[in-house]
Amino acid sequence: MDDTVLRVIALISITVMGLSSCAAFDAADSGRLLATGGVSQVEGAGGAGLAPWALITGYGTEGSYGANAFYTRADLPDFTLESIGASTGISNRVEFSYAKQKFDTGDTGPALGLRRGYSFEQDIIGAKVRVVGDAVYDQDRWTPQISVGAQYKKASDPALLGALGAKDDDGLDVYVSATKLLLDKNLLLSATLRGTKANQMGLLGFGGDQNDDYAVQFEGSAAYMVSRNVVLGADYRTKPDNLGFAKEQDAKAAYIAYFPNKNLSLTAAYVDVGEVALQGKQSGVYGSIQVGF
Fold first, then answer.
1. Distance CA 281, CA 47 (A)
2. What is the distance between the alpha carbons of residues 33 and 56, in angstroms, rounded to a whole number?
3. How far is CA 87 from CA 122, 289, 291, in A?
4. pLDDT at 98
5. Beta strand 187-196 with 215-225: parallel, antiparallel or unpaired?
6. Cβ(167)–Cβ(187) under 8 Å?
7. Model confidence over 88-104: pLDDT tens digits?
8. CA gap 66, 264 in Å, rounded
9. Domains of the chain from N-terminus onward
10. How many C-beta atoms surround the C-beta of residue 174 within 10 A?
11. What is the pLDDT of residues 129-149, one digit of tens each?
């Protein structure tokens, strides 16, 4: 992990500790409705598995704060993706997050000219700010809650990424998310527009021999609360196709999330990320655990 990542993590930690000791902030009140912070998205932001939501992570209300830690694993036919990280929400207004991703090639490594078990890795630092609306309290309005966010990503092994055609080993994604919560219908709808150069979310670098310009991508989520503690949902995410050696396809997922209380959530999903590195369609199971307040 480079010095930049460590400095940002330290800054986030100092900020949270400072807020917790400040008279203007109450103790973490966990005052928001169950599941309204979502789960931890695979890049660390609060939302669904593949897409961020406009909602702020944690259960802290205005003048308070909340935080989460998570671990996610997706087992695909030829690869394994793991993501671990943490996030904090401040005053139901600002969110900071960090995630470490590891994409293990397993037995497929030699077929790609790599050693067996070679892993692509990246660090992701995120921030999100709620700018308009409140998804819970604006039930009498048609307007959604809107947040803007950014994710700085730093991938490993720049020499290998360059050989694959990537132009850079780091990049900045920017996005705007709009989320509408319909409490009377137990339904949440969310849409995100992301400006990105990332190849396979950044694990294969940024930009490429086919394209090195920012592209606007769509990420959508729908979630239905079937009971007080259980949510069924689906995500869809488009991705840019920058590298000439392998076509990149859209990703999709269907999931069930269980919230026994505000300190724990468990998510199981079927995920399809399309073709990856000439190894055919990659679809499989996805599991995630989140703890927090």
1. 25
2. 12
3. 17, 14, 11
4. 97
5. antiparallel
6. no
7. 999 999 999 999 999 99
8. 13
9. 3-292 (2.40.160.40)
10. 13
11. 999 999 999 999 999 999 999
CB 231 within 8 A of CB 221: no
Encoding tokens for residue 183?
Answer: 């409490």
| CA geometry: angle 244, 249, 250, nearest 5 deg | 150
| H runs (alpha helix) in the chain | 3-21, 158-164
Q: Where are the beta strands (DSSP E) in the chain?
A: 39-40, 46-47, 65-75, 80-90, 94-104, 119-132, 145-155, 170-182, 187-196, 215-225, 230-237, 251-261, 264-275, 281-292
| Ramachandran area for residue 79 (φ above 0: left; ψ -120 to 50: alpha; else beta) | beta
- Closest by CA position to 44, among listed 16, 2, 9: 9
pLDDT tens per residue, range 204-259: 999 999 999 999 999 999 999 999 999 999 999 999 999 998 889 999 999 999 99
Contact indicator for 273, 242 with CB cutoff of 8 Å: no
